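Ops channel
N.P.: pipeline sanity check, posting one input/output pair.
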């Protein structure tokens, strides 16, 4: 039998994932027309390829904590990192798709190309470019992927680009004149050298790769620059979750966009204390949990930070994975003055061998949490999060549940539960989001007017009030952001633009967005998930057909004249007897057959509209329509003010009111 703790883990696993994603298998490089590379990762063995790649950044920054100058934060460079942008299986085939990173739009596309030395089989090819046509600066993501060649074509004037290197391969308006010129010059020579110099009409290709089912881009490097830097050891590959690569694990994925700053979203995920209150509901999510928190007495949290290769940074926290507040609430707080349990006292759980709850953050985008037997052991239940820094005040949340469950849960079921889970605390983050951005902008203003400017902005240290023993982890993460955010591309410019739009005499007057705006599931999730879109379409079809059949059944009930079963049987038998006569002519056979079929139909309709079958079928159609409508509702805005107010009443079940 599973313990209650294991049951909670299973429920959380269902909440924090979706359908399986395949492990990353680097495709082989191939040549097709313009030497089309399969992705940056497919070329890492081509050591002869080198290109000009800027040397490592050596500029020094001021440490937030002068007593710990070895944190490695001064070496962290946002421009030499990989960033997750979309799950590979969610990227439509042959359809340019816009993704955003640091307030800049890029276009990514997936095509099928022939494998090198294997013309019988195809492989997936990923390309990425700046989402801007050099001609008139319109979005290439509004264009198409050509059927021949797999090029990205602008839908405005037809300019066509090779996504692997950005080269403009065709400008339709110049084709006629170019052909005439070549004909006048005797035709192009077969030995004409290929011009590799970048031209103004060329687009900007950026590095893209796939790892563990996720597409990553490095927008400040071209594909060849990333290739050279990786092969020379100056660029690390995207970080990986170890368990995903291990045999026997199933992976479930999800995606959702939020109008919440990506730094705040990461702090939320790494906040071990909020789960016990923000997710305390026993309705749409499991009861609160505090396995990853510290009680400051018996279960102390250990936090380690380390600098990784190429200026990377990582922190890992560990604490005993046992209930802390829940245990205290049950054994101490929920007792009345006489020492008796109150009505909110929960059943005593069966003690299990203590595991270690670990939280890992690999800068700048990956977080994974799991319960393990020890710090080096694998986890049977793991949740991983990839946060894409879309821009100032925006983020893309992508998650995966990694487990050894014997079955794969349908993705739509997991998405329904996950959205309910996320809605519980996302609107709460809005206040934190506004306060942090405001203080960060004010820090820039103070720094710009200072006689001794610094690149460290003590936003979180001056904004938050830390008191919990579990906040050793959020403090470390806050130090990372305070020390490095000034080096985030486009951060200061977009932040100050937001501040200037919404500030008046040091007071923010930006209207507080509605709950529907912040928690709009359709815009944030459904539009980005092909599986959810398909489910909504199926629900629409079920609702429409059940409604049509229901009304048809009601009209049939009104139209069919009541007929006794004896009369119907007699008419049918008479027709069948006449059909059995060999002496009948052809016309008589046709007439009798028609009469018999009409009698059978009348008999069937008569039986159908009788009370028991009629109401049974009508009830089944109603249930089908109702179920489809309820499922569809889960993929649109749902978490209203009333639901929130009912939801938070469950806090008293976890923490006895004073």
């Amino acid at each position: 039998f599973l313990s209650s703790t294991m049951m909670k883990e299973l429920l959380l696993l269902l909440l924090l994932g979706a359908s399986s994603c395949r492990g990353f298998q680097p495709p082989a490089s191939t040549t097709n027309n313009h030497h089309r590379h399969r992705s940056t990762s497919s070329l890492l063995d081509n050591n002869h390829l080198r290109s000009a790649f800027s040397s490592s950044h050596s500029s020094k920054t001021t440490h937030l904590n002068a007593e710990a100058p070895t944190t490695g934060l001064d070496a962290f460079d946002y421009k030499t990192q990989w960033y997750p942008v979309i799950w590979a299986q969610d990227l439509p085939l042959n359809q340019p798709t816009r993704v955003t990173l640091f307030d800049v739009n890029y276009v990514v596309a997936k095509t099928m190309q022939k494998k090198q030395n294997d013309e019988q089989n195809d492989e997936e090819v990923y390309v990425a470019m700046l989402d801007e046509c050099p001609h008139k600066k319109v979005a290439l993501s509004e264009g198409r992927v050509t059927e021949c060649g797999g090029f990205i074509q602008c839908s405005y004037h037809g300019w066509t680009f090779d996504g692997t290197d950005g080269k403009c391969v065709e400008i339709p308006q110049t084709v006629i004149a170019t052909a005439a010129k070549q004909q006048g010059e005797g035709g192009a020579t077969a030995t004409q050298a290929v011009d590799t110099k970048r031209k103004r009409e060329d687009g900007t290709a950026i590095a893209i790769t796939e790892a563990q089912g996720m597409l990553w881009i490095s927008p400040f490097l071209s594909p060849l620059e990333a290739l050279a830097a990786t092969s020379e050891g100056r660029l690390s590959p995207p970080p990986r979750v170890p368990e995903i690569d291990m045999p026997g694990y199933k992976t479930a994925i999800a995606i959702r966009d939020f109008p919440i700053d990506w730094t705040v979203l990461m702090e939320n995920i790494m906040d071990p204390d909020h789960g016990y209150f923000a997710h305390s509901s026993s309705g749409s999510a499991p009861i609160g949990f505090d396995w990853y928190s510290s009680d400051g007495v018996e279960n102390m949290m250990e936090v380690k930070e380390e600098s990784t290769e190429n200026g990377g940074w990582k922190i890992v926290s560990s604490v005993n994975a046992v209930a802390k507040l829940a245990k205290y609430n049950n054994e101490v707080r929920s007792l009345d003055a006489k020492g008796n349990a109150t009505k909110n006292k929960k059943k005593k759980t069966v003690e299990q061998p203590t595991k270690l709850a670990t939280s890992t953050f690999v800068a700048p985008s990956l977080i994974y949490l799991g319960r393990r037997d020890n710090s080096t052991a694998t986890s049977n239940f793991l949740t991983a999060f990839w946060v894409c820094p879309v821009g100032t005040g925006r983020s893309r949340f992508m998650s995966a549940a990694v487990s050894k469950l014997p079955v794969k849960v349908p993705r739509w079921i997991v998405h329904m539960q996950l959205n309910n889970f996320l809605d519980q605390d996302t609107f709460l983050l809005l206040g934190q989001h506004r306060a942090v951005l405001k203080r960060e902008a004010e820090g820039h203003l103070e720094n710009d007017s200072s006689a001794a400017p610094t690149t460290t902005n003590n936003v979180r240290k001056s904004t938050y009030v830390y008191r919990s023993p579990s906040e050793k982890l959020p403090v470390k993460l806050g130090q990372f952001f305070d020390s490095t955010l000034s080096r985030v591309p486009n951060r200061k410019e977009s932040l100050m633009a937001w501040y200037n739009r919404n500030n008046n005499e040091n007071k923010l007057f930006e209207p507080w967005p509605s709950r529907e705006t912040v928690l709009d599931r359709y815009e944030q999730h459904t539009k980005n998930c092909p599986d959810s879109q398909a489910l909504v379409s199926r629900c629409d079809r079920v609702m429409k057909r059940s409604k049509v059949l229901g009304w048809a059944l009601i009209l049939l009930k009104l139209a069919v004249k009541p007929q006794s079963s004896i009369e119907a049987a007699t008419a049918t038998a008479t027709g069948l007897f006449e059909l059995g006569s060999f002496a009948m002519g052809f016309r008589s056979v046709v007439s009798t057959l028609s009469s018999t079929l009409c009698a059978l139909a009348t008999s069937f309709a008569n039986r159908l509209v009788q009370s028991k079958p009629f109401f049974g079928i009508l009830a089944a159609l109603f249930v089908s329509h109702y179920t489809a409508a309820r499922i569809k509702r889960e993929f649109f805005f749902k978490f209203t003010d009333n639901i929130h107010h009912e939801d938070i009443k469950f806090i008293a079940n976890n923490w006895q009111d004073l």
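N.P.: looks fine end to end. The radius of gyration is 32 Å.
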